[in-house]
Design goal:
CATH architecture: 2-Layer Sandwich
Radius of gyration: 14 Å
Shape: globular
CATH class: Alpha Beta
Order of helices and strands: EHHEEHEE
Structural class: alpha+beta
Helix content: 25-40%
CATH topology: Heat Shock Protein 90
Protein name: ATP-binding protein
CATH superfamily: Histidine kinase-like ATPase, C-terminal domain
Oligomer: single chain
Keywords: ATP-binding, Kinase, Nucleotide-binding, Serine/threonine-protein kinase, Transferase
Distance between the termini: 15 Å
Number of helices: 3
Pfam families: HATPase_c_2 (PF13581)
Organism: Actinomadura decatromicini
Domain Histidine kinase/HSP90-like ATPase: 13-115
């Protein structure tokens, strides 16, 4: 059976810290402490990307299966990278370094950035 927390609607940067804490606390109950720290950082970066590049906020969903914790961050943006911006662009590099699996998909509905971290046996 998959576990999850209710999807979180992030409409402004002011809502990011509470959402980040809620997701980190949930993650700590199903993955190692180190992995929960990584989840907190990655979800913060993903929410920031959605708020900066998306339109109308973001919807964050967390799903836990027997093998992994998956976070999905959806927004209504076009899912493109702004070339030449030196003040942006580190978020995906952080996610790439920490997540065993991740991807960003864009279609006519917007963008979905997701990442997964593995669960350890016994957690």
């Amino acid at each position: 059976m998959d576990l999850a927390i209710a999807p979180l609607q992030i409409t402004s940067a002011a809502k990011v810290p509470a959402a980040r804490r809620k997701i980190r606390n949930f993650a700590a109950s199903v993955v190692s402490a180190d992995a929960a720290d990584d989840v907190e950082l990655m979800v913060s970066e993903a929410m920031a990307n959605a708020l900066i590049h998306g339109l109308g906020g973001a919807l964050v969903t967390v799903i836990v299966t027997e093998k992994a914790l998956r976070v999905e961050v959806r927004d209504h943006g076009p899912g493109f990278i702004i070339a030449g911006r030196v003040d942006h662009g580190r978020g995906l590099a952080i996610i790439n370094a920490l997540a065993p699996r991740w991807k960003s998909d864009a279609d006519e509905r917007g963008t979905c950035l997701w990442f997964e971290v593995d669960r350890e046996v016994g957690l």
